[in-house]
Amino acid sequence: MKILIVEDEVKTVQSLKKGLEEHQMTVEFAHDGLAGSQLALSGHFDVIVSDVIMPKRSGFELVKHLRSAGIETPVLLLTAMGATDDKVTGFEAGADDYLVKPFEFKELLVRIRALARRGKDGHATKTILNFADLEMNLDAKTCTRSGKKVELTPKEFALMEYLIRNQGRVVSKTEIAEKVWDINFDTGTNVIEVYVSYLRNKLDRPFDKKLIHTMFGLGYVLKEEAG
After folding, report:
1. What is the pTM of this model?
2. 166-191: pLDDT as tens digits
3. What domains can be seen in the chain, in order of their start residue?
4. Which of 16, 40, 101, 131 has the most CB within a 10 Å radius?
């Protein structure tokens, strides 16, 4: 089982990581909400455990961002705030469970296991991904923009899916090669540039707003802006 911990208290992270690894769980972590969002979008986790009050992006904002990106990994929020209104805010943002600090580790473990089972049994991964006026149906393997169907090859579809899952984050050519092509990046090939060009011809040029942007020397980022 793979767990993502998003928590700015270093000692808390160390304690939770140690405890979960003793129960044969693989743990990754981030110390602020923005980094946590990026990890959650790019990785495959069974459960995400996140604090609420964090630098850069709160736990509420993190969950809302993930759900809007189509990531349905079960999320357990940890917080010192136990008021009903706070819990409602968390659930409305898309959180699956809520645990008030301080808590017993045994209770956290039980809740994580329950969420992991729910995620597997309920097929929690969303089959529809949305960004701006772009929609991808992962089951039907269809893509539309502004309601117009756009035909994509399997590799174009896989690349676009990766970009939309990492929307707002710059992804490098090396990362794309490893995650989409599953190969070690060869600096002598321009295959990624070619496929990005294919996507732009189909998904950007016929429309007013560009979605796929080049960050020179860094990679590509999916964001909504004119021009």
Report:
1. 0.54
2. 888 899 988 888 888 755 555 566 88
3. 2-121 (3.40.50.2300), 128-226 (1.10.10.10)
4. 40
